[in-house]
Every structure is written in C-alpha cells, then in structure tokens.
Amino acid sequence: MKKTALTHKPVSLAVIGGGAAGLFAAMTAAERGVGCLVFERKARVAAKLLMTANGRCNFTKDISAERMLKDIGEPVASFVRPAISSCPPSAVAAALKSRGLRVKRMMDGRLFPASEKAADVAHIFGDALRDKGVPVVTNCPVTGIQPMKNGFIVATDNFTVWAKSVLVATGGVSFPKTGSVGDGQRFARELGLAVEPCRAGLVGCDTDDRAVLSRAGRRFEKAKASVIVDGREVFSSEGEVEFEPTGLSGAAVYNCTRHVARKGFSGWSLALDTPEGRHVVEKPHMRPVKVAIVTIGGVSMDEIDPSTMESRKIPGLYFAGEVLDIDGPTGGYNLTLAFATARLAVDALSRRRP
Ligand SMILES: Cc1cc2nc3c(=O)[nH]c(=O)nc-3n(C[C@H](O)[C@H](O)[C@H](O)COP(=O)(O)OP(=O)(O)OC[C@H]3O[C@@H](n4cnc5c(N)ncnc54)[C@H](O)[C@@H]3O)c2cc1C
What we know:
The protein has 354 residues and is an alpha+beta fold. The chain has ten helices and 22 strands. Helix 1 packs parallel to helix 10 and helix 4 (76-86) crosses helix 10.
C-alpha cells in the first residue's frame, strides 16, 4: 500500500507507545500545551499497566526521592537522579490524586488505588487525554523513525506523520502480548544508538530442589531471600517468598534475581529464611525475560542525556520508561521510573520548542 502523509504541518510531539510512560508523557504534554499524538501498537492502551500488582497497580512508594534512588542502586540511580528529583514519588501520587484517584497506603509505603483496580489509573490517563483532545491512534504500530532537517518522519504501515520531536516509550520485552516487543530498541539500533542486551530482571526462578518443590503452595509474607556468591552473602531482600510447583517467586526472590542479572553473576545460590528455617537453593535457574516483571537492558544510558532524556546523537529524539536500560526493585519503583522519565522528557522538549 502506498503510504500517504497524514500531516502537512508537523505535530509538536509524537509519542510512540501508549503504556505507563507514553500516557503520562502525553498527559503532561497536554497540560504544558504541547500538541501531541500517541501511537499504540495494540487495540487498547495500557495493557501492562492493567496487569501490575495482579491488577491492583502499585504505582509508586511513599518515600523520598533520595530513598528511592538508594533502593534503585547503581548504575541506574545516577542516571535517573534528575528524573526522580524533578518527579519524586510524592509528585507521581499528587498527579494522580489531583485527577481524582483515591489512594491506599500499605504499611511499607507502597501506594495503590484505594479501589485496588489498575483500571482506575488507566482511566485517569484516558480521561485526561480525551479532555484535552489528544489523539490516540490504536492498532497502529510505528514501523520506523526517520530524522529529517526539520523534525522526524514517523512511519506506520499505512501512513506517515511529521513530528518536531519524538518520544519513544515502547517498553521492554517482557510479556510481549501486552505490545512491548522490543520495537523501540530496534529503532534505536537502526538510528545508530547502542542498546544493551535485554534480559530478565525481577523474575522467579526454577529449581529441582526437592525441599522447595515439596513446599509448593506455601507463601510467607515476612521472609528473607539472599544471594550467595562464592560462599558469601552479597545481597538480601526482605518480603514475600512463594513456593511454587517448579520453583520460587515473590518480591524478595524477585529483588534477588534483579541483583544477579544486574551484576551478571553466573554461579550463585539463593538462601531463604522463612519461619520454617533457613534453606539454601543451589544454582537456581532464572526464568526467561518473557515472564519477567521488568526488562534489564535496552537503550544504553550512555546514549541519553539524563537531564532531558534526549538522545545525545539525535536532537529531538527522546526515550522514557522501560525501553531504556533502567529498572528498579519491586514496590512501585518501575512505574515511578516510567512516569518520572516521561515527565522529564516532556518538560525538556517543551522548553526547547521555538
Ligand atoms: C506482571 C507485572 C506486574 C507489574 N507490577 C508492577 C507494579 O505493581 N508496580 C510497578 O511499579 N511496576 C510494575 N510492573 C512493571 C511496569 O508495569 C513496567 O515497568 C511499566 O509498565 C513500563 O512502562 P513503559 O511505558 O515503559 O512500557 P509499557 O507499559 O510496556 O508500554 C509500552 C507500550 O508501547 C506500545 N508499543 C510497543 N511498540 C510499539 C510500536 N512500534 N508502535 C506503537 N506502540 C508500541 C506497547 O503496545 C505498550 O502499550 C509490572 C510488570 C509486570 C509484567
């Protein structure tokens, strides 16, 4: 089919991806008076957001920016410092509360919609974009981005759009049915940007350890999981541990697998401290990225100016959310990262518009 150009004058901002980062970016752009258009690959936006915390959406944590950065750890913390400092957890909560979200705070500070329905968060974005008349083109995967002298040509299978700035917010590569299939990482590579290999962060692990498998179905809310490398405990996390028919899951286990993936350990063991005592699982197998809560890897942090989220090589091209090589622990950190990087990008591009 011949591609027709949809616009004769440029839209200020084309947002690619209607997930947490893309929707928060579009909502912010509408507030700042930046004309914008959202492209979404799937028939509906926010598929992954609706899955979060088993459909309850732990959208941030009631802690300071400093504390959040400390928990995120290096090398990500230094890169996201400007984003989290300008859009700390309190600002994420305020943005949603000011649009009518009633919020529930857990003892550990995690924030959820009081209804425990992720759909309430998705509706806030949907309503905000409808109110401001922001077009959201669904069922419309972007197939390529071409930098021009005066902006970008954003291509789909059927038409192209001319945009002054582009924000790539296409997510990681986990749960590909939600639409995050690695397109943004491909665009980055095609444009000559370095992309770190995508792998699982925050994921359960499988084992054939009989003591684990025989406990399948047990779940401990107050447990501890620790990573052991060369006989030394190198990381630990307190929280939920769940025994499953093939292995282990739960927040404490997820935080351990994230640490292992970030550090690149190959030989490691997982120590579990539960009310039933200590047990060490030798050489657990991390599950694949397609079932991970977050993707580690993506567009290299070195490629992006952390104070604007703009590509260092291609002015006007911005990235936000999980498409970047950024990730955090469980507990609302990853959505906060998506929201904060999205807002920083929009604030930066709205300042540099003529
Ligand atoms: C099971 C599960 C539970 C989770 N629970 C939590 C939680 O409770 N708290 C938390 O903080 N984090 C949680 N996360 C992580 C969090 O959901 C993600 O980090 C976050 O959604 C990333 O946002 P994003 O906008 O970068 O990517 P996504 O939310 O994945 O959005 C990307 C969007 O881009 C679209 N897209 C992709 N390619 C194209 C293209 N070529 N053209 C147009 N559109 C495209 C996709 O269809 C998708 O809609 C969870 C994740 C999972 C899988």
